[in-house]
Design goal:
By secondary structure, this protein is an all-alpha fold. The protein contains three helices and no strands.
Length: about 110
């Protein structure tokens, strides 16, 4: 979706401002990627902390192998769940961005015809 959005912005700028428009597209895209990745990471870590507190552990000594295995199993399940949720959220964001990008691309094509 980078190409249609960038092209739409650059083509909508006056000829004398296209360099500025292109540089703004790049800067804003890099900022968006940084903020987006930071936001997803922060959300994933927050979600991990919430789910980690809900792990049910047996009432055994810490050194007991059954207790240790319960910790490993619980943390594995939490990690898989957080990664699955993070990728689902990312997929929804990509789908929304794709729809917007395709719309921009279609609008640009109809203007050139």
């Amino acid at each position: 979706m980078i190409a249609p959005v960038g092209t739409a912005v650059i083509n909508s700028a006056p000829d004398t401002q296209r360099g500025i428009a292109a540089s703004l597209v790049i800067v804003l895209r890099l900022m968006g990627m940084s903020v987006g990745l930071s936001g997803l990471t922060a959300w994933g870590l927050h979600r991990f902390e919430i789910l980690r507190t809900q792990i049910t552990l047996p009432d055994l000594p810490l050194a007991d192998p059954v207790y240790q295995q319960a910790i490993v199993d619980g943390l594995t399940q939490v990690t898989v769940r957080v990664l699955t949720e993070t990728f689902l959220v990312s997929a929804v964001i990509v789908a929304v961005a794709s729809i917007i990008g395709l719309r921009l691309h279609r609008d640009q094509q109809s203007e050139t015809e």
